[in-house]
Amino acid sequence: MQRVFNPIHLAAAAILEPVVAATPKKAATPVNGQHRGPTGSATPTGAAALSGRLAAAVRNGESSPRSVLDEPVDQPRALPPESLLHGVIPATMWTSKLGTNYSLDDIRKNDKRAHAELQRIRWRPDNSRCADCAATPTVWAIVNHGTFVCLRCASVHRSLGTHISKPKGCTGTYLWGPDELQAMRPGNRAANIALLGDSAPRLTPDVSDAALREHLVDKYEKKRWAPAVRPPEPPDLMTFDEPPPPPEEDFFASFGV
Ligand SMILES: *[C@@H]1O[C@H](CO)[C@@H](O)[C@H](O)[C@H]1NC(C)=O
């Protein structure tokens, strides 16, 4: 039976969108709360971030999603370098795989939110296939490269050494730091553009162990395909500070006036 929508309810729904998107029913859709940009890739919105956390809270069996909303908005902040701590080093310090120090307490308090966000990033369509061999599912993160990879590729990454790759399981109970989550946000597609450019071969899950290892050494250790770093974009908005000369001047100048 088709549902009849009251136009007033529809208008209200548009205004209350984030709240509507946050209901568990809508959260069950994998791309809920995301819109498709010009590139066709899904981009999460603020509502998606919220609904993702709420959905995770509901999945985790929390009595009320409200408890997520009530949590402090601030992320744990990095501790200053040891030299500035004046010997007062917190007894319980936690160091992320990327080398940032945090108070373990802060990281623990934020754990539920951090895991909810990690899973939200991991479930994005661009992160559902291994960044290296395109297999599913992606169960490990290589945090220093911002890639989600399959179990098999993760084991090759481990063999490369932590100076090349810093793997971290996505499915366990590991604590995640804000710096690590930040590194994972751009996702596999962005990381592969930076690591592979246009010319590198793309692997499929049936690649042999030897060929896979060789590819990963080329990709991550030798950076064989990484395009040269592009210079920063010219700051377009700044040009408004210096307006071009009025057009009339040029117009009359062309007649020698
Ligand atoms: C983190 O703490 C360790 C141990 O105190 C220290 O050696 C290291 O330099 C700190 N790292 C940063 C980035 O401050």
Question: What does it look like?
Answer:
One of its GO terms (cellular component) is cytoplasm. This protein has helices spanning 7-15, 17-21, 24-27, 46-59, 66-69, 104-109, 111-122, 151-160, 178-184, 187-196, 209-221, 247-253; strands at 34-36, 42-44, 93-95, 101-103, 140-142, 147-149, 167-169. The protein has 257 residues and is mainly alpha-helical. It has a domain at 112-228: Annexin V, domain 1. Strands 6-5-7 form a three-stranded antiparallel β-sheet. Strands 1-2 form a two-stranded antiparallel ribbon. The protein is globular, with a radius of gyration of 24 Å. The termini are far apart. The model is unreliable at 1-51 and 61-73 (pLDDT under 50). 2-acetamido-2-deoxy-beta-D-glucopyranose binds next to loops.
Structure summary:
This protein has 257 residues and is mainly alpha-helical. The protein has helices at residues 7-15, 17-21, 24-27, 46-59, 66-69, 104-109, 111-122, 151-160, 178-184, 187-196, 209-221, 247-253, and strands spanning 34-36, 42-44, 93-95, 101-103, 140-142, 147-149, 167-169.
